[in-house]
Amino acid sequence: MDDTETRDSGTRSWWQRQLPPSPLARSLSVQSILFAVGEGTFITGSAVFFTQIVGLSAAQVGIGLTVAGITSFFFAVPAGKLADRVGTKRIWAVSAALTAGLYLVWPFIHGFAAYLVMMVALEVVSQAGWSGRGAYTIDIFTREERVQSQAFMRAALNIGFTVGALIGGLALATNSDDVVRAVPILTGAILLGNAYWITRLPEPPAKAPAHADDEVIKPAALKNRAFLALMTGDGVLGTNQVLLNIVIPLWLVEETDAPRVLLAWLFGTNTVMAVLLQVAAARGVDSVARSLRASYISAGFFVLSCAIVLVTHDTVGWLTIALVWLGHVTVTGAELYQSAGHWGFMSELTDADQRAEYQGAAHIGGTLGSVWAPALFTWLAMEHGSLGWITIAVIVVVPTLTMGPSARAAERYLARHGSAT
Q: Is the pLDDT of residue 95 over 90?
């Protein structure tokens, strides 16, 4: 009897480790799945939708994405300030509802001008929502729960995007314009459910009443230049996504003898690892020091990936396949640990009274650290081979080495000017 109870207890404990650690974390993970299923359904067939339904050229699609990205860069901090003032959960819920409504309008959009207006509107609304969400998910958890819960939510996002991709793929498989035109309506309906789910989440803890002089004394998030420098370095580390989604696939196709079908296995491996290993990578990241450690591990995986992939130019057959796959696995390791470090920094180094504004500042720093990477990394790898891969590794290592001093300076700045986290 006692032995059975012990085994049952052990079984329950194992299952608990596979699930988000609290009802709130589970509820936010469900929200992440809802959001990702909706977005993933549309994103999968978006190229077909934009070209065949909206009537755009590939160049026009790219211009719209670029303009939307620039808008997001300049709107990030104002959106964060709005979320801090209005309420992080409220702005998140309103943004989610507006986003759903905008998707319902997509079937009626035609031509470049209307597409451009829609992309900018979506980006502005989404940026406000992401600032609110980021601040909410820090405020709602205790310091000990924050990073681990974020890891479960990230794993849930990957599950949701996978399901969304399957739905979008089925829609494309019909080869019907009417079905493709209906995809954003399905996305809008799912995202309306997401918005309702957000409204059912608990309110974040009430903040202490502000004194009359606080508005004058407390500096803007962008004044915290050490934090901005840290987020820029973190943005450079985040260029693992460029290797993952652009450079390694291009390298495989143009510079190796590996079969193109391997690309499906690469992305499948990344998805499985992101779902199963993100929580493990984030375990114990509950301080600035441990966040830095996660960032350094991420950089190590990044460099190892570059070292592995660069030799595949001269390998053949199964060795090439194995090495390219291993290069993708190691860059996925860079992704997992960079995410964990980022969440730790956002938990420990953002002002409790300006949480969403700091989300906007982090977005600006991350953009500065990564916006140039697709063009530069692709050029270095494809035009300069081994030397290019070595240069990419150096480009990543140097900013990573500055993250320690930046983090310590941001910590001191927050001690002088900020509120308790």
A: yes
Given a cut of 50, whether residue 292 has pLDDT beyond it is yes
Burial class (CB in 10 A: 0-12, 13-18, 19+), 209: exposed
pLDDT at 33 over 80: yes
Q: Cα–Cα distance between 412 and 419 in angstroms, integer? A: 12
- Please, is 1 exposed, middle or buried when counting C-beta atoms within 10 Å of its C-beta (0-12, 13-18, 19+)? exposed
Find the helix or strand (DSSP H, E) in which 7 lies: helix 2-18
Q: Are 194 and 36 in contact (CB under 8 A)?
A: no
**How many CB atoms lie under 10 A from the CB of residue 267?**
16
Round to whole Å and give the CA distance between 396 and 238: 9
Q: Two tokens at 366? A: 């991350």
The amino acid sitting at 208 is A
Assess whether pLDDT exceeds 70 at residue 216: no
Q: Nearest Cα to 234, choosing from 406, 414, 392, 369?
A: 369
How far is residue 165's CA from residue 242's CA, in Å, rounded to a whole number?
20
> Cα dist. 51→5, 47, 208, 234, 383 in Å?
61, 6, 51, 35, 31
Give the integer Cα–Cα distance in Å for 362 and 368: 10
The predicted structure's pLDDT at residue 1: 40
C-alpha span between 121 and 128 (Å, rounded): 11
Q: In the Cβ-directed half-sphere of 302, how many Cα atoms lie within 13 Å?
A: 33
Residue-wise pLDDT for 379-419, tens only, equals 999 999 999 999 999 999 999 999 999 999 999 998 888 66
| Model pLDDT, residue 410 | 94
pLDDT of residue 294: 97
